[in-house]
Each structure stands twice: as structure tokens, then as C-alpha cells.
């Protein structure tokens, strides 16, 4: 690691923490840090474990990444999907491999040469310019600098990082096949996420959107692992350390429940349009569908909703591109003062309509949707705009966090009986199977341990 890389990482680190939910302080935190440092030293980027900063992120999406300077990240959601310590080391080793191969520098150079609007960051710019690969709006408020460090990888870069991660696993004594097994779990989780959210357009969750197609890499990882030394899995140690870890949305950041988003702290709720799915980020909720995309977020509010909407449009403008609404209208929605405006933008191939719809919740707190739809089709979001409402204190108090619970299989337990203990209203069996890397006909043995999700 060079001094410049250390400085770059140190500058981006607080931005990334803010973007991805902050550090998670709870079960597994110290354990993840130690496993991450142990696998990172295998890369040779630095020989001392103290040179690395490993962070378990308080995020409900499956994601992991590393940036120059020895900074390594994984979300609690992704850790909860894993089955043993070797898989944890595999994911973290894969991310370190990207840094060791200087992939982020290659991505930054390409991104800077092809900078788009520079508006709310490269993600919204990509949507405005028709770039389908940039459909995930949940992290829009991050600075461009941190986004350049966490852009998606190419297929060849993914393969190289897999190979490096497998080499690190072997040198650390872990079973090198763990890379393949965790990729398989990710692929199965991606497919389940698509089913549970009703997606049919092939869109994939956060980790898969920046790390292409884990399913196709499983066999390649198994082939790469052949002949390599290492057998450690540390399943029991892993399960003991993740027991009790939060799973899913942190109520402090709001909760997605089917088509409804509820924020118990700010006491509001809204419903996504039919056929759309939501992903909750730290500072924004993304709402995506085939007929448009949206985000809910906030910005400073001085009591004037019209100027608030104008300011939101100004944030979308940059590098010679001005996005201005034709007019700003005032209205009320379920007792909330609201204001909205729409601007037509040419993305180089067609026109799209960008709408900002804002709500005042107090004299100094407002929230707003930004929506993007083909010209003349913003109406698809009208049901969502009209669904925004305050919630009562009792509704807010009813929102509880989910957690991972490691249980011992008892005689007579079945996949269905264990799945019925999962804290979900739908897809209980499917969620249980993916969470534990099991098949519908997998045998259960009394005394073995499995993971369930409870309140």
C-alpha cells in the first residue's frame, strides 16, 4: 500500500460508513474484524494486521467491498447468509483481491473519462442517460468520490478476484471451496429476492449489481480450488458469533414490508406502486420497476416547500445540465402540506420526466420523492405520491427488528416446522432453505445447528 492509497482510503472511509448504514456494533463485530484482518494479510498488501480496517456495516443489503488503503467492508446481511468462517474469509478475501489487483484504480479512470451529469452521483445520472446497469438508486446521496471506489466490476475482474481470494483461503488454511459455496448461496438468495419482491425483469440486489453473476462463477471457483490445500471451515465458531445479529432493515432507518415502507422514527409510511420493488438505503429508499424509478430522501428544509423543491432540482443539475420544472404546484396529501414539479429531460435517446414531490412534516423537516419515468408517464407514481401519511405512535412502536437465531435441531424437527418459526409472513420454507444452504429434501440430524430469523 502506498501513502497515497492510505490517504485515499482514509478520506473515503467516513463517506462509505455514512452511505452504508454506519458500523454495526453488536454480535459478530469483533469476530468479523479479526477474520478479515487474518485473510487480508495473505494478500501481501501489508504484513501487519493493524494496517487493515475491517468494518461490519449496519446494512440490510447483501454487499461487500474493499478500497485502497486497507479498508474492507461487509454488511451484516451478507454475513448472515454465510454458513461458516471459511465463507466469511472467502468474501473478504475476494474484496481484498480487487484492491490487490488495482481494480478500483482502473474503474475510477474509466468513470472519470466517461463522467455523466455529475448530479446526485453517477447512479441517477446513469438512469437519466439510459444506462440500465445503474438502476439501483438506494445510495444516491453518497459523494461521487466514494461512488467511484465502489462501482461495478467487469466479468474478468470478478474472476481474477475470485482466484486471488481462493489463493488467500488456501494460504490461511481455509477450505478453498468456500468461495464456490458462498457464491452459490448468493445466487440462490438473488433468485429468492427476485421472487419475494415480484421482480420479473432480471434486476438483482446490491451485491450482485456490483459483482456480476455469482451463479456462473460457482463452477469456475470449484475448478480453481482443486488441488489447493486447506480444510478449515469453523462452522460452530462462526454460528456462535453471528447468533443474535440483526437481520433485515434496522428500524432506526425505516423498514420495507412488502410494498409498504414505514419509518418509526420519523413516523411516516407510504406504498410503492403495484409491480415496483423497494430497497432501503441509509439515506434513501429506492423504488424500481419496469415503468420508472424513484427514491425517497430528504434535504435541508427552511419552511418553504417551493424553495425545497427548487433545491432538489438544483441538486440534480450539474456539468452544464440544468433540470428545471415548468412550475411548482402546492397541494395537501393526507393532511400533509406538499409541493411538486416535473421537468422534461432528454437522455440522448428519448425524453424522460423527472418529478420532485415533497412533503412537510414540521417546520424544519421535509421528505421528497424523485421519480424518473418515460415522458408523459409520471402518473404511474401518483398512487405512491398520494399514499404518504403520518403513522401513530402505536404503529411506530409495533415495528421490531429481526435477528438471527441459531437453534439446535431436535428429534422430530422438520424443515417445515423450523421454517414456521421464521419471522416472515411469506416464503418461510424458501427463506429457511436459502439461509441454511439446504434443499427441500435435505436430511436434518438432531443435534446439528441451523439459523432461523426471529423478532
Automatic annotation (TrEMBL):
Cofactor(s) demanded: Zn(2+)
Enzyme class: hydrolase
InterPro entries from the UniProt entry: LysM, Mito/Outer_Membr_Metalloprot, Peptidase_M48
Domain Peptidase M48: 29-223
Pfam families reported for this sequence: LysM, Peptidase_M48
Gene3D superfamilies, sorted: Metalloproteases ('zincins'), catalytic domain
Domain LysM: 408-452
GO molecular function: metallopeptidase activity
Alphabetical UniProt keywords: Hydrolase, Metal-binding, Metalloprotease, Protease, Zinc
Source organism, top-level taxon: Bacteria
Entry EC no(s): 3.4.24.-
Protein name, per record: M48 family metalloprotease
Phylogenetic lineage: Bacteria, Pseudomonadati, Pseudomonadota, Alphaproteobacteria, Sphingomonadales
Amino acid at each position: 500500500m502506498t501513502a497515497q492509497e492510505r490517504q485515499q482510503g482514509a478520506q473515503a472511509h467516513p463517506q462509505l460508513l455514512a452511505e452504508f448504514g454506519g458500523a454495526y456494533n453488536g454480535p459478530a463485530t469483533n469476530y468479523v474484524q479479526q477474520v478479515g484482518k487474518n485473510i487480508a494479510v495473505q494478500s501481501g498488501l501489508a504484513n501487519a494486521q493493524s494496517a487493515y480496517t475491517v468494518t461490519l456495516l449496519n446494512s440490510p443489503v447483501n454487499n461487500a467491498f474493499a478500497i485502497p488503503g486497507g479498508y474492507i467492508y461487509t454488511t451484516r446481511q451478507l454475513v448472515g447468509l454465510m454458513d461458516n468462517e471459511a465463507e466469511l474469509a472467502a468474501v473478504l478475501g475476494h474484496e481484498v483481491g480487487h484492491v490487490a489487483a488495482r481494480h478500483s484504480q482502473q474503474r475510477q479512470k474509466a468513470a472519470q473519462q466517461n463522467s455523466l451529469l455529475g448530479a446526485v452521483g453517477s447512479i441517477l445520472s446513469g438512469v437519466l442517460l439510459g444506462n440500465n446497469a445503474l438502476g439501483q438508486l438506494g445510495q444516491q446521496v453518497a459523494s461521487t468520490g466514494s461512488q467511484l471506489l465502489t462501482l461495478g466490476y467487469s466479468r474478468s475482474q470478478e474472476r481474477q478476484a475470485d482466484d486471488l481470494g481462493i489463493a488467500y483461503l488456501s494460504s490461511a488454511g481455509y477450505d478453498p471451496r468456500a468461495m464456490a459455496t458462498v457464491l452459490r448461496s448468493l445466487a440462490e438468495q438473488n433468485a429468492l429476492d427476485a421472487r419475494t419482491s415480484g421482480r420479473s425483469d432480471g434486476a438483482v440486489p446490491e451485491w450482485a449489481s456490483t459483482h456480476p453473476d455469482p451463479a456462473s462463477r460457482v463452477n469456475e471457483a470449484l475448478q480453481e480450488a482443486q488441488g489447493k490445500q486447506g480444510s478449515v471451515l469453523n462452522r460452530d465458531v462462526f454460528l456462535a458469533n453471528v447468533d443474535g445479529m440483526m437481520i433485515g432493515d434496522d428500524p432506526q432507518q425505516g423498514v420495507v414490508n412488502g410494498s409498504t415502507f414505514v419509518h418509526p422514527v420519523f413516523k411516516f409510511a407510504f406504498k410503492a406502486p403495484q409491480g415496483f420493488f423497494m430497497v432501503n438505503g441509509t439515506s434513501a429508499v429506492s423504488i424500481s420497476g419496469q415503468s420508472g424509478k424513484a427514491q425517497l430522501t430528504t434535504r435541508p428544509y427552511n419552511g418553504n416547500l417551493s424553495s425545497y423543491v427548487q433545491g432538489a432540482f438544483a441538486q440534480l443539475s450539474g456539468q452544464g445540465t440544468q433540470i428545471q420544472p415548468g412550475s411548482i404546484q402546492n397541494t395537501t396529501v393526507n393532511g400533509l402540506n406538499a409541493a411538486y414539479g416535473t421537468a422534461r429531460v432528454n437522455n440522448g435517446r428519448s425524453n424522460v420526466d423527472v418529478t420532485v414531490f415533497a412533503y412537510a412534516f414540521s417546520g424544519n423537516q421535509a421528505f421528497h420523492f424523485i421519480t424518473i419515468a418515460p415522458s408523459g408517464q409520471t402518473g404511474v407514481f401518483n398512487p405512491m405520491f398520494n399514499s404518504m401519511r403520518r403513522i401513530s405512535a402505536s404503529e411506530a412502536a409495533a415495528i421490531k427488528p429481526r435477528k438471527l437465531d441459531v437453534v439446535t435441531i431436535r428429534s422430530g424437527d422438520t424443515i417445515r416446522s423450523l421454517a414456521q418459526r421464521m419471522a416472515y409472513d411469506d416464503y418461510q420454507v424458501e427463506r429457511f432453505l436459502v439461509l441454511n444452504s439446504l434443499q427441500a429434501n435435505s436430511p436434518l440430524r438432531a443435534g446439528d445447528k441451523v439459523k432461523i430469523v426471529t423478532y
